[in-house]
Design a protein that fits this description.
- By secondary structure, the protein is an all-alpha fold.
- The protein has 2 domains: 86 residues, Helix-hairpin-Helix base-excision DNA repair enzymes (C-terminal) (Endonuclease Iii, domain 2); 113 residues, Hypothetical protein, domain 2 (Endonuclease III, domain 1), CATH 1.10.340.30.
- The protein is built from 13 helices and no strands.
- α6 packs across α7 and α11 packs across α13.
């Protein structure tokens, strides 16, 4: 099957699961409300290794603590202890608070106080620049580039990694970059955001790590677990 056709088939089947609810995703909800790359970057940092409900609550607490607005100056002028307390609900608050401070300091001292110049660069150069910021890895950079600036990249979270492996799109040892590039090859660039969100939805609600609900999955005939070829530990 032609690669792009495979992506179209997967996306069409995923649409059977219903409309996307952006309120279920931290970054899309924050983008709708705050519309700044810094706010999205901080929201993404807060969403790492926690659920969206706690990440959004932590972000809203932080906004209140910073005086109603996420800016470089408001972060730098707020004591670390107050930031820690504001984001406690997200977990790992000591590490996250320190990272948020480091991000703000780096952007001010090394990037002229703004992310806009980075986001206007070609994709791979923009990724490298973002990943030079403390606490910003591949996934965080890709989320910001795709969701805020519409750059053609494909963030890979734990759900997307699991689904990609079970579908046989990549092997079980594939790392972040290999999965990202494979998904960029399969889907059309204009569909990256929708495919990203729908694969997450599939992983959360059906293709779960321990007990996947294969009988209701629209991709079960394409999947090694759904066809019973391998166990659900993949």
């Amino acid at each position: 099957m032609e690669t792009r056709n495979l992506g179209k088939i997967i996306l069409l089947r995923l649409r059977r699961l219903g409309e996307l609810d952006i309120s279920e995703y931290t970054t899309t909800k924050i983008k709708e409300k705050y519309k700044t790359p810094l706010a999205m970057l901080i929201a993404t940092i807060l969403s790492q290794n926690t659920n969206d409900k706690n990440a959004i609550k932590a972000f809203n607490n932080l906004v209140k603590t910073l005086g109603g607005k996420i800016t470089i100056e408001s972060i730098l002028n707020t004591p670390l202890e107050r930031i820690r307390e504001a984001i406690r609900v997200a977990g790992m608050y000591n590490k996250r608070a320190k990272t948020i401070k480091e991000v703000a300091f780096y952007i001010k001292s090394r990037l002229g106080g703004s992310l806009e110049d980075i986001l206007s660069l070609p994709l791979e150069e923009a990724r490298r620049k973002l990943m030079s910021i403390p606490g910003v890895g591949s996934k965080t950079a890709d989320i910001l580039l795709l969701m805020y600036y519409g750059k053609p990249t494909f963030p890979v979270d734990t759900h997307i990694k699991r689904v990609s492996r079970r579908l046989g799109l990549v092997d079980s040892r594939a790392d972040y970059e290999k999965i990202r590039r494979k998904l960029m090859e399969i889907f059309n660039p204009e569909d990256y955001l929708e495919a990203h969100l729908r694969l997450i939805m599939l992983g959360r609600k059906y293709c779960k790590a321990g007990k996947p609900n294969c009988s209701l999955c629209p991709l079960n005939d394409m999947c090694s677990v759904g066809r019973g070829i391998v166990n659900c530990r993949v």
